[in-house]
Amino acid sequence: MTIMQESNRTETVAAGSAARQVDAVLPPAGSLAGLDYVQALTAVALETLREVTLDRPGPVTAGGPAAVREAARRSLGGPLLPAEPAYPLETFRRFVRDYATWSVDVSHPAAVARMQCPPTPVAAAAELVVGILNQSLHAWESGPYALELERYVIRELGELVGYGPDAGGTITAGGSISNLMAVLAARDRVLAQRCGWRPFAQGLTGLDKRPVVLATDATHFSIGRAVGIVGLGEDMIVRVPSDELGRLLPEELERTLAGLPEDVVPVAAIACVGATDQGWVDDVAALAEVTRRHGVWLHADAAYGGGALFSPRLRPRLDGIAEADSVTLDLHKFGWTSATSGIFLVRDASVMTPLAQQTTTLNADDDAEAGFIGLYGSSVQATRRAEAFKIAVTMNALGRDGMAAMVDGCHDLACYAADRVEAEPALELAARPSMSTVLLRYRHDGDVDAFNGELRRQLMTRGVTLLARTRVRRPDGSSPVFLKLMLLNPATTTDELDRVIDDILATAADLERSAQASR
């Protein structure tokens, strides 16, 4: 009996029956026998995912945190390492069913909480190939073609940003790691130029200057974490005054830099290219003029807003991004590849030299001279997945027109949702969407912040809609709570989007009736 035939048999044999013989050692996935297993397991996975999708009416199974914990207790209550090996197909089916049942369906039109795009079918299938072949990028012998594929992807994306032939970069585990690498690169380059100091080798102890990073209060939280990790200290972030939205103003950056004490060395300024709430973009070109005068590294955090690069309609909003010394992009946001698909780009690849200077068995000089070069020296990681594969196949499959249509489709959905919110007297729109985010809240006579917080929790507990929440800065200094629709699924229809807003209104009305009844 073949593996495929066995996978389709009726599961009537009890788990511990002596009639079932299970090999303790499975074949490697990439072997011929292993590929048979993978084919059977893939069929099981797709069949189970289809069943779960048909049975679930909303973007997540109803019940909230308590229900998820109880489901996990029931399905994961046994030992991680049972005494006896289990039958692979049945074990896999059980895990897939439970995992899918209690996962967020990112392809559902009401899954609008987070920056989790539904990946394209080619990206999902590419993940299977990457998992089977299990290449790495730290050494040539770990993944020779994968290395060339990453170099190709980085080169192409650098050109998309507007960088020249000296550019470089790496694929990362996401925007937080890309921002960490930006702060690391800025620290080493600027302190070497300004102080003759090599932090990667010498550390920071003994440096007679205080290195700082300049940012606004609206800068992404990952920058604070990065500054702490690289040893500068989160307290060494100098907050630059911003406008009412949180944008970094060139004149305020100039004033702040000019007013720093002599013992302070500014190593980096952080520009936002596509704020996650309202989508605004800093004037990168004007900021770059300031930072160059002062010898400061300018980093453009375009983890979300970088998607506009694919759209001729939205791309002009990112004019000047090529003036930044480094850029963060996340293609698991706008890009329709599965997580993780972070990108870190630098205008001058030589800035990554400190990472490559550490001599190991992975980068012997004679191997490098013969062309056996890995990518250990371009990343903070050694072993890395070949994430470039899914990026390359997705972009090749969609092409420029396809990527543009998907970005524009999400922007159009956001504009439609904003129109609908403005037409509803019970709802308030924070601002017209700049990219694909819509901020709204329900108008309530009492504590409007608390009410909208509870409204969000009720929607999620019922499994109706998954919303994010944020606070919106106001000119008067207040920051009220708003609910956030993050629209990253271009396949969503306007009718489906109407149902999301209808569910928000209906749930809010239920909450108000319950509150009135309890008075």
TrEMBL record:
Cofactor(s) needed for function: pyridoxal 5'-phosphate
Highest taxon above the source species: Bacteria
N6-(pyridoxal phosphate)lysine sites (modified residues): 333
Keywords: Decarboxylase, Lyase, Pyridoxal phosphate
SUPFAM superfamilies according to UniProt: PLP-dependent transferases
GO molecular function: aromatic-L-amino-acid decarboxylase activity; pyridoxal phosphate binding
GO CC terms of this entry: cytoplasm
GO terms (BP aspect): carboxylic acid metabolic process
Family: Belongs to the group II decarboxylase family.
Record's protein name: L-2,4-diaminobutyrate decarboxylase
